[in-house]
Model the fold of this input.
Amino acid sequence: MTAEVTDTPRNRTEETGPATAEVAGRRRFPFGSLPSPGWLALIFALAVTAVTMSYYGVGERAQLAFAAYSLGCVTLPGTLIWRALQGRSGYLPLDAAFGTAAGFAVELPVYMLARQADLPYAVLTWPILTVVAFAAVPRLRRFWRGNGERMPAGASWSAALGTSFILISGALTVFRWNSLKAPNSAVMHVDFPFQFALVGEFKHDVPLNTPWVAGVELVYHWYVYAHGAAASWISGVEPQVLIMRLLPVPMIAAFLLAVIGLVHRITGRWWPGNVAILLMIAAAVTVPSGWSDKPMDAIVFIDNLWVSPTQTFAAFFAIVAIHVLCGIFQAPEGAGRRRPVPWIVLAVLIGAMAGAKATFVPMLICGLLLALALRLIQRKRPGPELPALLISLGWLAFAQLILYGSGSQGTEVNPLQTVKYSVLGRAVMGTQNALNDWGTLAALTGISLGACLVGWVGMAGLLRRGLRTDPIVHVMLGFAVSGLGALYILAHPGMSQTYFGRSATPYLGILAALGLAALLPAGRPVPRRFFAVAGLGAAGGAAVLLVVRATVGEQGPAVPLAGFTVEQATRPYLVLLAAIAGLAALVAVAARLAALGRAQVVAAAAIAVTAVAVTSGVVTNRGIGEALISGDQQRDLVNEGGVFAMPRGAIKASRWLRANSHPRDRVATNSHCRQGFSPCDSRDFWLAAFSERQVVLEGWSYTEPAFSTGGLYDRTLYRSVFWDQALLERNDQVFTDPTAERVRSFTAEHGVRWLVAVGTTPVPDPGRKGEVWASRELAQFATERYRAGDVTVYEVRA
Done:
């Protein structure tokens, strides 16, 4: 008996209209009847989102306002534009996903122009004009209709379940420890106020500076914060709620749909896209230890989607750009590839990537270079890789010179440092330092890389004819390999090199899924015994992982720092790799005994090995299920060791200042260090974050001058010395030892209208412990306007 691994013709048609009258007659569920599986998947994802957001403090009004903004001001007009650019309508979910990218790309320059004119609501003109044009112009009206086909239920549910899982995972790893409610909101992740401050900077027509150190040029990948500013104006939702809860959700959902669309475009099949989503979510890192679920976690894609919205935004643009590039590669040579519209779309998307996150364009360039090199090795003329490479290089130059000011933001070439920061690295080498035991570093890097690669063995199928010469496969392979390379070659005091690894993970999953699809080609019957062998192999893979975790991987280090030898740290990984090799051999023998073909033998073995990684993903995420069924409160919690890093009354006072001042009013404060930390931790951004005003000098971390004061192990991320000690001294004298002349001269010189005094602050010196106190005599020289907790707001007298 055999079963065909194939898709029906209507599911392999993306470019054409409905394949059958039956399909055409089932476009929408009529009022009063049951919705189709695709609509049920959407309803399910929306319900999970609404319940999760409500539980974690997002009100109904904010949810509805943001949903209306996302749909009406981004996705709907973007979808119409996308369809017009393609010259056709496709599957509604895919068009909506790609259209969301188009909406983001159009919104950014329109909003920046509106901001420059101090008319932020003018950004609404583009969605309104778009909708009106597509309703009024007869030739454009057809783009309101889909292609009459539905995505298969499996594809719709993969995107819905993937989005829901990522959301719930984010809720239990981020939301529950980062409350929207006082007083626990003062314990939020250190990067969140930094991000609120950037959204506030883009909400107003002010010179683009670093908001917490006025006058310092803003050199950062800031595009997502302009998007957040537009979303805040139109929806009326606070930047805090957008960044900590809502903003990444449509990006994640659209990203997963775009993955399905890309894989379908390459293979003409749907199930490989489902597999790609499973692998990128569950199989990123294989963990053979039972004592830690994250001994090496540097490429887990879903970990930082809320803490780093820049990563989420750029990842979405990247997958859509790869999809467009794939279409260019698939176009007929000659006139088909010279059509200007796809190239314009590609150029816009790469430009959006360049300003969304600094990691992505260099990785794309590496992918294009690999594709070009392989084409030249085959003695073929350069194809679309070359112009795409030139476009990418142009945007990279723009980003480095204009957006990033030719700075490195603390990143340096320093190989093999990444493992020092991992749980396992600290267990072997202790606290991170500049000393390099290259043998130990090589051993730990080797097992780290091996743990990353177990889930991607399906890529063996890429060697089969067709995919091995497919340039889009080469681009994605170069993209992914360069990301893994940068993960281990570069170093950053804040571990920002891990974003290269996280950026690679989706493409490793896609390539593995493409490889499995190549091993099981469409239209060729697959014997039922293949599924029996592959199923038993997968069960064996799950058993291997669980046994290793429960035996050789169970015992952890005696102490967290330097409690392991290299041999103890590597043993579980080596045992697991040996067991995987044995399992693959057994499955291959069983497959041959079952008279399976060579490709099916490789597929069965790949599935067995992949099951090890997927099982690891399930086991290491078991805490999600345990939390959901525990009955314990899962919100407004303070993590062990959490510190109330803002002064009492900080948010209230800042928001009062926002409501009672002009956006161009400048502020001075004596708060430079996070509360509860001594010596000074200069990642102090709360005033700029919640007042949406530029501060002469608050904290000074995350700036190019701060990073330039030291190296990787000099604590420049959070304990650098401020580079202008004279400014710091004059600023603080206004608060600690005020006189009429000091207040007058300092506020006049720096254009300060408001003074925000915090009663007690850490000494603003990373080399000294202690506290300093604001003087109450400041009230003699400035007018007290508001007080909350330990924070007092003064207005400078004219």
